[in-house]
Amino acid sequence: MNRHSQQLCPRFQTAINLIGKRWTGMLLNVLLRGPARFGELLERLEVVGDRMLSERLKELEAEGIVERRVVPSHPVRVEYELTDKGRALAPVVDAVAKWAEAWIVLDPKVAQAPKAAESDCDEAKPHAAARVKRA
Amino acid sequence: MNRHSQQLCPRFQTAINLIGKRWTGMLLNVLLRGPARFGELLERLEVVGDRMLSERLKELEAEGIVERRVVPSHPVRVEYELTDKGRALAPVVDAVAKWAEAWIVLDPKVAQAPKAAESDCDEAKPHAAARVKRA
Do A100 and B21 touch (CB under 8 A)? Predict the structure, then answer.
């Protein structure tokens, strides 16, 4: 599935195949706000199933973008956190958020949904997403 | 397939679902360099089939990102060109290219491929992709 055109930059192709996967962009968007537990990610992403989320996290771990961290608390807590390589994706997520804000007109069905999600758009604005870390 | 989490910015979700589709990032990368004919796109993307490319172009047309233009030459030429909304995606493509250059280590199988594609990486560097227009 990871065939490459021999005419286009292979690094760009590898990157876009990785980042472009279903749910990965949204997952990065959430993790850029700070580390989160599996259940928290499931709750924020809402529409992703357990298995899909687990698969995406494993892929991102294998790529060195996400780190699975066991916090030595009682009971122990497992958190997912972006690595330096993962945090370096902030400008990509910011650029998408900025473009979306300027150009996306929502499908009426989505726009009519409860307004809870709208309040998230501020967080997704450039810079905000990259900087906010859980205290 | 376009389910939305009610906790995350719906515009971001719509944008990422659109841009993240298989081949769309690479297609945008090529079109940011200037208008191109169907056959030229097929040649640059290399690994995309006719039907998939045609489907992607139609989607991007429907979203107002790509414009299909009939050039009144002899014989007439059909070109695909980014609209303002499409060209506004340059910072997204630039950010991906920049990240890829800094962080992607190529799979040995890809790295051993003929070096033709490597020369494309310069073009994909920030700003270059957005500015170069076919003379």
Answer: no
The answer to whether residue B93 is domain-embedded is yes
Q: Which domain holds residue A110?
A: 10-131
Residue B1 lies in a domain: no
pLDDT tens for A85-100 read 999 999 999 999 999 9
Is residue A112, in this structure, part of any structural domain at all? Answer: yes
What is the ipTM, given to two decimal places?
A: 0.83
pTM: 0.83
**Does the CB of B98 have a partner CB in chain A at under 8 Å?**
yes
Contact list, A104 vs chain B (CB under 8 Å): 11, 14-15
Whether B5 is covered by a domain: the verdict is no
Split into its structural domains, chain B has a count of 1
B20 touches chain A (CB under 8 A): yes
Q: What is the CATH number of the domain that holds B51?
A: 1.10.10.10
Tell me, letter by letter, the H, E, C secondary structure of chain B: CCCCCCCCCHHHHHHHHHHCCCCHHHHHHHHCCCCECHHHHHHHHCCCCHHHHHHHHHHHHHCCCEEEEEECCCCCEEEEEECHHHHCCHHHHHHHHHHHHHHCCCCHHHHCCCHHHHHHHHHCCCCHHHHCCCC
- What are B107-116's pLDDT values in tens digits? 777 666 556 5
